[in-house]
Amino acid sequence: xxxxxxxxxxxxxxxxxxxxxxxxxxxxxxxxxxxxxxxxxxxxxxxxxxxxxxxxxxxxxxxxxxxxxxxxxxxxxxxxxxxxxxxxxxxxxxxxxxxxxxxxxxxxxxxxxxxxxxxxxxxxxxxxxxxxxxxxxxxxxxxxxxxxxxxxxxxxxxxxxxxxxxxxxxx
Length: 171
Description:
The protein is α/β, with parallel strands linked by helices. 21% of the residues lie in helices and 33% in strands. The protein contains four helices and eight strands, in the order H-E-E-H-E-H-E-H-E-E-E-E. The chain has an eight-stranded mixed sheet with strand order 1-2-3-4-8-7-6-5, with no helix packed on it. Helix 2 links the parallel strand 2 and strand 3. The longest helix is centred in the middle third of the chain and has 12 residues. The radius of gyration is 16 Å and the shape is globular.
C-alpha cells in the first residue's frame, strides 16, 4: 500500500457519486484532515480503517447501524459530547454496534464518562449481545449507559484478539 499517492480527490468523487445500499469499507489514506467526503445515509455497516480525517463534525454525519473507526481526531471532550447526544437521542438513533480501534478503556472512562451516568457491570455477569454483522457474542461485565428511550449501550474493551478494540453494543 503506497501512502504517498494522493487519493483524496478520487475518494471524494467516489463517495459523492456511488450508490451504496448496505456496506462501505474503506482502507484509503486520506491526507487532508479537512477532507469533505460525504457518507451515504442509512448504511448497515460502515468501516473506515484509516480514519485519521474523521473529526467530531464528520462523526455526527455518520448514519449507520454498525460503525468501525480506526485512529481518529476526536478528543475525549468530543466523545463525551457524542455520548450525551446519543443519550438525548440527537444522533445515531439506529446504532447497534460501534467499534473504536486502540482506545485506552480506563482513560476513556475517566476522561469521557466522568459526568455521564453509567453503571459498571460485574465481570462475573455474562450477557449476550449482537455484534458486527449480526453475530451473537457472549460478553462479561462492561459499562452500561442508558438512553432516554430506555435503550442501553454497553461498553467493553477487548484485548489483542480483538485488535485492542473498544466496543459499544446497543440493546
